[in-house]
Task: structure prediction
Amino acid sequence: MATRKKYVQLITRRRFVKISAASIASTSFFMLGCSKSSQQTDEPDSRSVRDASEQKEQQSPSSSTSAPMNREYVYVTEYAGNTLAAVDFENQTIATRYPAGQNPMMAVEGDSALYVGNSSGGKLQAFNIDTGLNTPIAAGQQPLGLVIDEDSQILYACDYFSSAIQIIDTKLGSMTSSIPLSDVGFMGRTDPPSCCRTTPGAGRRPVCMAKSSDGILYCANYGTYDIARIDLSSGEEIEPFDGVVGPRTMLLSKDESSILLAGVGGESEERVFDLYVIDRKTGTRFATIPIGEGVVDVCMNSTGNKAFAIARDEGTLVEIDTVSWQELRRAQLEIDIGAICLSNDDSTLYVANAETGELLAVDVESLKTISRVSGLSNPKDIAVLRG
Result:
């Protein structure tokens, strides 16, 4: 059994909403499982954190820091632009940009704010939805995957370089405690496979999370390519599950019986072509659904009867029946797609392409691209505000 560790302050068990981790496409500055065109290794560059304090944060190329956020827009984190872009599909334009800290990655909505994690600089940016005003919150070294408690509005952040889960009380606007992960993962692992490391003994390196209603936090780790489990009622880490090489996104099925796990694999080895479906209670992988090379993201519709997954390196989109775990349909989009999100009415899929800087709108009924907006600066994650 994995070493058990208690975190500093126990959190009352509440009902949580799972937010999948941001798809993390390869760049020259930050990488988790590189694209084929990259000349770097698959391990993220630790200099991104060491140099963060020495870098002057870039200013937004345009627009206001206090414009109210429009719920009709689609919000996209722009990694290279240090901004959060508001995309107006009706007028085929980027309506405004908000400064979003250094190298923004994932975005998750709370009661009255949209939270964006900075993969450099160790902060969250809390955007007030009614005013657009942004308040930075310390969140460790490199917050990646985020999950928020709908009742208490406590936010959990995967801190990649600290190999810990940081706990943020969004009402206080501050980080209150931390959950350190054990140094040893599934089957005694302490390192990624040889394809995906440059420095041995680097730690678990959590990148994405999901939370069950019975109080278990699931963390997919890049370093030990496994799933850490934390019992929030006791504050202890319990026996981990096997995971995937190069994890990107994890979510729970609607009935919480299964974990959906997307991963891209390594640079030239350990490539991943399938979406993994894992029994949440036992950790057994009971289904592998072919998607294409580099399974970078997955999302689910509001009823939970269908999931949609994308393959970065083949540009495929696959619709999945979550009862039979069988493919229903597939469509060819374009390579380098890296994030996917459904509209509130489940009629439109928004798909970001980090290479071309475009956001696609895909009609769910036909699985055809019906619109696109260009001009984004390395888009990483997509958020649709609740109506």
